[in-house]
């Protein structure tokens, strides 16, 4: 049994709830040949595009989507002028798979965005102390997942990017997601593309209950995909456990059985045979 290559993974339609890698790419750099390594491609209209280039970026993005391609879009903060322009340009646009709301701080901002886009799924990107404080309300406001914008969060609090400084915020988002019956949150990206560092950061996020990561390069997305996926050996063990659970106290076996079934569900979504 072998896992599929990164190029093959790019062809899979991974459900949003199980998507591991969310690749941010500036909307004004999209081309017909933009690769799809990540589970989710997120065209960025917010931090990735300077203010003076946003109109051109919207034009590039809408033409790109109208050309038969699909992507999520990170839009600007709810209620602002740029947010209104994003909504006007993207609402009912063919190829729009979902929107990631930048700097989500209140449930009202989420509800406003959901109302503006109708049936389009929304991910709330939490990037500030206020957003973390209101994480529970945001998670229950109708989003399909929440994500952690580590860079802006660090700037807001004036703290370093080490794991101890960010531990509380990450754990708070994990608890908020679970309480709202959402998948585990999407962690912020690793600075740089060193595959060893990306893999180590991803394992740390997974250990806390996060289940995906934002990525700023295709190389990082490939590492995240591999690190977040069960290995063929994991799949074989899970399949054997589900087929023949050991006898004993049901209360002790049930958690392991649920974990094994989850491993098989993810393996199927990620194309691991």
Automatic annotation (TrEMBL):
One of its GO terms (molecular function) is lyase activity. Keywords: Lyase, Magnesium, Metal-binding. It comes from the Bacteria. Its cofactor is Mg(2+). The keyword Coiled coil does not apply. Gene3D superfamilies: Phosphoenolpyruvate-binding domains. Substrate binds at residues 74, 127. Mg(2+) binds at residues 127, 152. InterPro entries: Aldolase/citrate-lyase_domain, Citrate_lyase_beta/mcl1/mcl2, Pyrv/PenolPyrv_kinase-like_dom, Pyrv_kinase-like_dom_sf. One of its GO terms (biological process) is oxaloacetate metabolic process. Residues 38-182 form the HpcH/HpaI aldolase/citrate lyase domain. SUPFAM superfamilies: Phosphoenolpyruvate/pyruvate domain. PANTHER family: CITRATE LYASE SUBUNIT BETA, LYASE BETA SUBUNIT, PUTATIVE (AFU_ORTHOLOGUE AFUA_4G13030)-RELATED. This is CoA ester lyase. It comes from Aeromicrobium camelliae.
């Amino acid at each position: 049994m072998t896992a599929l290559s990164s190029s093959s993974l790019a062809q899979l339609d991974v459900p949003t709830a199980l998507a591991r890698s969310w690749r941010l790419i500036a909307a004004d750099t999209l081309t017909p040949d933009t690769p799809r390594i990540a589970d989710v491609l997120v065209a960025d209209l917010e931090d990735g595009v300077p203010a003076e280039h946003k109109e051109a970026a919207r034009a590039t993005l809408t033409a790109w989507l109208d050309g038969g391609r699909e992507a999520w879009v990170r839009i600007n903060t709810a209620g602002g002028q740029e947010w209104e322009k994003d909504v006007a340009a993207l609402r009912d646009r063919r190829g729009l798979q979902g929107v990631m709301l930048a700097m989500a701080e209140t449930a009202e901002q989420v509800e406003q965005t959901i109302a503006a886009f109708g049936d389009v799924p929304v991910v709330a990107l939490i990037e500030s102390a206020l957003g973390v404080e209101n994480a529970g309300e945001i998670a229950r406001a109708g989003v399909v997942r929440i994500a952690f914008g580590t860079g802006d969060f660090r700037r807001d609090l004036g703290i370093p990017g080490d794991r101890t400084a960010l531990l509380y915020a990450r754990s708070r988002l994990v608890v908020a997601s679970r309480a709202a019956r959402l998948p585990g949150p999407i962690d912020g990206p690793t600075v740089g593309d060193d595959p060893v560092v990306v893999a180590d950061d991803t394992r740390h996020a997974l250990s806390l209950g996060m289940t995906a990561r934002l990525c700023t390069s295709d190389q990082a997305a490939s590492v995240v995909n591999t690190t977040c996926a069960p290995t063929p050996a994991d799949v074989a063990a899970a399949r054997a456990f589900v087929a023949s659970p050991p006898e004993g106290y049901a209360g002790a076996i049930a958690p392991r059985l649920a974990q094994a079934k989850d491993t098989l569900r993810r393996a199927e979504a990620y194309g691991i045979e």
